[in-house]
Every structure is written in structure tokens, then in C-alpha cells.
Design goal:
The chain has a single domain, classed as Spore Coat Polysaccharide Biosynthesis Protein SpsA, Chain A (Alpha-Beta Complex). It contains 13 helices and twelve strands. It starts with a helix and ends in a 19-residue tail after the last helix. It binds guanosine-5'-diphosphate and manganese (II) ion. The site of manganese (II) ion has 3 residues, from loops. This is Glycosyltransferase family 15 protein.
Length: 390
């Protein structure tokens, strides 16, 4: 059989190996670094900016766009300006992009959120977190300050880059015709997205989309198609219920979890961790992506469950993109709070071109991937990222 490396190189490989002399005067992409934050997160924001500047942007000077549902105060702005090499724009998010839409009954939504809080679902009881996830799922790319840009790099508070990034990832994404780039893929907490996959697969089905090869990354295991089985067979999967297909806006009537209704497919909970993203804004602005978002939104899942923007972006990619559209930034050393990806510590044979799930993996490989949480090494790095060589 062909080696894993050969198969994966067909789809994707590192843009650059080794250190380059950064092209400080080279051409720049039409791109920006996007930071969504609150005033109280200033320390975490500065930590992230220092890391971004030290390992990349001091050479490339890409501009920043800061977004907030409130107003940034002068301390926040001045401190940020003292640490950034690129220009900075400050954006306020309007209520149309943040908060409950008018077709939702806020009382119903708040009750749903409270129930998730009572059930101790992570961030489930925090209303602002639900708004944040919905904003990053369906609105950030529509913000006026992003209109002039074609590309963005998402930066969150309290992250760290371990390795110098000596090339321009945007230029390479363009040259290699990539749409979406990630550096960590992990499993979602099941209880935050019990019904997300049913809606995503309903979208796919209603639009007669056939997989371009990426969808399988998110599917637990291939099973026989329902149409091949008689209804009496215990493996026969019921079609999606009418209330999902015809769900009325604002009903928030997400049905109970019914894994039997998923056409033989269930979600393996895998998703690209979206606190790091380098992606093409055009894709988010496409009719297809927005139809997807709207259908997901209409279900009420952003309130009645706690759908994150990471599984939303990932399942949209699964439905709409092909493996060759995706780039795995396996050479970026990156840490967000407790989970990190360290290229040097990646298990032998994994540092080259491999996106899991896109390949036919052996049972043994699958097990190793599971155990690794898909390259996210949960143990913290030693101080200052020592222990992660790049
Ligand atoms: P986690 O990474 O999932 O633990 O969530 P974070 O607390 O880091 O939130 C994700 C991103 O959204 C970060 O960039 C936060 O600064 C931002 N964020 C979360 N909630 C709010 C909010 O209520 N207002 C604003 N302006 N930003 C928020
Ligand atoms: Mn975060």
C-alpha cells in the first residue's frame, strides 16, 4: 500500500521547511490580524501580541483589527499600540451582529442557556459566550472593518507561538490555493453540540452536496447507507425529522438527541480549533457558507445548545471544501491556555505532511491519533516554551 506520507503529500505539505531570512520588504497579502476581546482581557491580549510580534509580525507588520461588543478604553488602546508594529483599527460590533436576533424569543433563549448552566455544560450558562460563538460563526467577516481584507489571522488572548514564523503564511496560502488553515484539531465536548451534526448533515442533504473528501474527517465511522437496508433492519436510520427540516425561526425546538436519525452517520466530535485560524474571508462571505450558517442559526442551536464557532467552521468546511483546500500549519508551535501543538514534540513520522482523517488509516494509526487528541499535546511546555524546539 502507498505510504501515509505519499497519500498525504497529495493533499497538503508544509509550505516551508527550515528558517528563512524573513522578507521584510516583500509583497504583502491583503490580510489582517483579527482580535476579539474585552477591556478586562488586556494582559492576555498583550501576551498574545508580544508573541505574535516576536515570532512573526515584527518582520511582516500586518495590520490588526480589534473588535469588541463594547468600547475599548484608552488604557487598552494605548497599551496595545505600544506593542504592535502594524497599524491598528478599533471596531465596535453592532447589536445586529451580537445578541439575540429579533426572531428569537429572548426569554426562551435565556431559559435554554440557564438550563445548560444548571447542567454544568462548559460556558453553557454564560450568555455572552453564546453571543461570541454566534458572532464568530456568522458575522465577523461581515464587519465593516474587515470588508477591505481578503485574508485574516485570528489571534486570541492568552496564546503563545513557540517558533519563529519566517515566511508569510498568507502568500503561501494564496500560491497554494488554500482556503482554511489550522494548527490544532481536537474533539469537542459532546454535550455542547448534541444536535449540531444532524443539522449540518441536513444542510448537506438538502443541498445535494456530495463530499469532496473532507466530510469524512468528521464522521465517526462509515456505515451502510439506509437505503440499502430494509426498514426492519436495526441499522436502518430514520430520515431527519420534519421538525428539523422545516424548523421555524425562533422556536428553539431542538429535539432530543436521536443518533438514529443521522442517516448512518454520526459526529466524531473532531474540529479545527478556531482560536487559531488563517483563512480566506471570501469563503465565509460565499452564499454557500451563509446558507449553511443561516440554517444552523435558525435551529436555535446557538442558544438551546452551546454550539462553538469551531465546530461550525469545521462542519461547513467538511460540507463545502475539499482536503486540498485545507492547510495544516504543522510547523507552527502554538499554545492556547491548556492545549498546545509543538512541531518538535510531534510523534516521529507526524511532522511531515499528514492530516489525519483524510487518509485511510489503519486501526493502530487511528488509535494513536485518538490518544494524541490529534496532535494537540495537552501537557504544558516548560517555561517560555523551552522544551518545544522549532
Ligand atoms: P475560550 O478560548 O473558548 O476559553 O474562550 P475565550 O474566553 O478565549 O473567548 C474566545 C474569544 O472571544 C476571545 O478572543 C475573547 O476575548 C472573546 N470574547 C469572549 N467573550 C466575549 C465578550 O463577551 N465580549 C468580547 N468583546 N469578546 C469576547
Ligand atoms: Mn480563548
Amino acid at each position: 500500500p502507498p505510504s501515509i506520507r505519499k497519500i498525504s503529500e497529495k493533499y497538503d505539505k508544509p509550505f516551508v521547511t527550515g528558517c528563512l531570512e524573513p522578507q521584510v520588504n516583500g509583497p504583502r497579502a491583503n490580510a489582517t490580524i483579527v482580535v476579539l476581546a474585552r477591556n478586562k482581557e488586556l494582559d492576555g491580549v498583550i501576551q498574545s501580541i508580544k508573541s505574535m510580534e516576536r515570532h512573526f509580525n515584527r518582520w511582516f507588520n500586518y495590520p490588526y483589527v480589534f473588535l469588541n461588543d463594547g468600547d475599548f478604553n484608552s488604557t487598552f488602546k494605548e497599551t496595545v499600540l505600544n506593542h504592535t508594529s502594524g497599524t491598528v483599527e478599533w471596531g465596535k460590533i453592532s447589536p445586529e451582529m451580537w445578541g439575540f436576533p429579533d426572531w428569537v424569543d429572548p426569554a426562551v433563549a435565556k431559559e435554554g442557556i440557564q438550563k445548560q448552566g444548571d447542567a454544568a455544560i462548559m460556558y453553557g450558562g454564560m450568555e455572552s459566550y453564546h453571543h461570541m460563538c454566534r458572532f464568530y460563526s456568522g458575522f465577523f467577516y461581515k464587519h465593516e472593518l474587515l470588508q477591505k481584507y481578503e485574508w485574516y489571522w485570528r489571534l486570541e488572548p492568552e496564546i503563545k507561538y513557540f517558533c519563529d514564523i519566517t515566511y508569510d503564511p498568507f502568500q503561501h496560502m494564496i500560491r497554494n490555493k488554500k482556503t482554511y488553515g489550522f494548527t490544532i484539531a481536537v474533539k469537542e465536548l459532546r454535550e455542547t453540540v448534541p444536535n449540531i451534526f444532524r443539522y449540518a448533515s441536513a444542510y448537506k442533504r438538502m443541498n445535494n452536496l456530495t463530499s469532496k473528501g473532507l466530510w469524512e474527517m468528521f464522521v465517526e465511522k462509515p456505515e451502510e447507507k439506509p437505503k440499502d437496508l430494509p426498514k426492519s433492519d436495526p441499522k436502518y436510520k430514520k430520515p431527519l425529522p420534519e421538525e428539523i427540516l422545516n424548523s421555524e425561526p425562533g422556536t428553539g425546538a431542538l429535539p432530543e438527541i436521536d443518533p438514529e436519525a443521522m442517516e448512518g452517520e454520526s459526529y466524531n466530535m473532531c474540529h479545527f480549533w478556531s482560536n487559531f485560524e488563517i483563512a480566506r474571508l471570501d469563503w465565509f462571505r460565499s452564499k454557500e457558507y451563509n446558507d449553511f450558517f443561516e440554517m444552523m442559526d435558525r435551529s436555535g442551536g446557538f442558544w438551546m445548545e452551546r454550539w462553538g464557532d469551531a465546530p461550525i467552521h469545521s462542519l461547513a468546511a467538511g460540507a463545502l471544501l475539499s482536503p486540498s483546500d485545507i492547510h495544516y500549519f504543522r510547523d507552527f508551535g502554538y499554545r492556547h491556555t491548556t492545549i498546545q501543538h509543538c512541531p518538535a514534540n510531534a510523534p516521529a513520522g507526524r511532522q511531515l505532511a499528514r492530516i489525519p482523517f483524510l487518509e485511510k488509516t489503519t486501526e493502530d494509526e487511528k488509535k494513536r491519533i485518538e490518544e494524541d487528541e490529534y496532535w494537540a499535546t495537552p501537557d504544558p511546555p516548560k517555561e517560555n516554551g523551552v522544551g518545544c524546539r522549532c
